[in-house]
Amino acid sequence: MSKTRFVITGLLFLVVTLSGFGQEKQPNIIFIISDSHRSEALGVAGNSFVQTPHLNQLAQEGVRFENAYVTTAICTGSRASFFTGQYMSRHGIEDFATDFSEEALLETYPLVLKKGGYKISLIGNWGIGKNPPVSHFDHWDSKIPWRTTSGLHQTDNIVQKAVNYLDKYQSEAPFFLSLGFSAAHEIDPTKDKPATYDVQERYLPLYENIEIPFPETVAPEYWDNFPDFFRTDKNIARSRWQGFFSSAELFQKNAKNYYRMVTGLDDAVGTIMQKLKELGIDENTIVIYTSDHGFSLGEHGLMGKWYPFEASIRVPLIIYDPRNLESNGKATEKIALNIDLGPTILKLADLEIPKCMQGIDLLEMISSNKKRLDRKEFFYEHEFLGSPQLLKSQAVIRKDIKYIYYPEHDYEVLYDLKNDPNETVNVVNSPGYARKVKNLRTSLRNLKQSVK
């Protein structure tokens, strides 16, 4: 090799080396979205009997958000809020038939990740519209039944597919993997079959010898206190309750099955974490766990979600970033919302957040003292179906108080959460709360406009 050629080669090597100096590799990201996992169904959250060792460990090694909420408690609308970083009032997905427009889809966080160099994949539930964006993803596998013909449960099937995906991943590009579980949702009823839980057989012995505590508001008086337009068997949350929680025996049977499915989800997380370690990619893979909404296990004489009660709108939220030793191991009481996950994921990937997103970067929220990031209240909305099946509702929610408005009936509810965390008494007409009611009415009008 001539001296000139040797010098040129050396200079090229130096340029390439310096151009990469200080640049950290973008992290892999796994976003796990379960269904109907209420926030209290977690050992680390204080539940004394539910077995969730893997999620407990994830929380202890990551960041757990103690006040995480959804802005609409219905599968499709909430999942759309995850992907867009927007309130339902802006993304417009109010039912199970509406798809994202192409323009809106391109500004969802997975497509922004793809533009930023990620390989993006989805396994499990997409849950939005009739025409999923299969062609935009590098890997797509969403049609996964509750049971295969051989009897494989959906939770186990999704985990198996996720493990296979990780084993076979060869690209130098970072990956984003969305895992959408249907557990711990019940199987919806049909004309021929009532709603039921489908639990993996190995979990059936769990919780068999304990009595699940009954919620305070399971007593008939709390259902009886609702106004006539709410207190009807046409209310889907009440009709579902009839078949699941209307007796002590039914409550014990179905509450145990619910928590068994939660433990199945926990084991799924454990399997995925173990696979990351086996492959040696655990130190550069972020794992996020949450749910599309909570779930009422008989509270207020109801089953399901939809309404802005605490059981329905609170969800577990854990962000584990092995690179962020400073924040890991923390729990925060600051309010986090489903609309925050898109912006947070993009910031973790060091990508720009689209201006149309309404959420915030949660990790900046907990690491800074910026007042604009410390929410004091948020807007809740539910529009699907309407009265009497599922009443439309709006709410202003703060950590210490909640104002609910049912627009179809011009009816107001106020719960003093500080003194009444189980939402037992509507104090909207109590003289001592008149000033707060006036203030919250104004907040509702303002928030409703601001989220559009």
From TrEMBL:
Protein name, UniProt field: Arylsulfatase
Gene3D superfamilies cross-referenced by the UniProt entry: Alkaline Phosphatase, subunit A
Classification via CDD domains: G6S_like
Keyword annotations: Hydrolase, Metal-binding
Domain Sulfatase N-terminal intervals: 27-350
Recorded GO MF terms: metal ion binding; sulfuric ester hydrolase activity
SUPFAM superfamilies referenced in this protein's UniProt entry, alphabetically: Alkaline phosphatase-like (SSF53649)
The keyword Isomerase is annotated on this UniProt entry: no
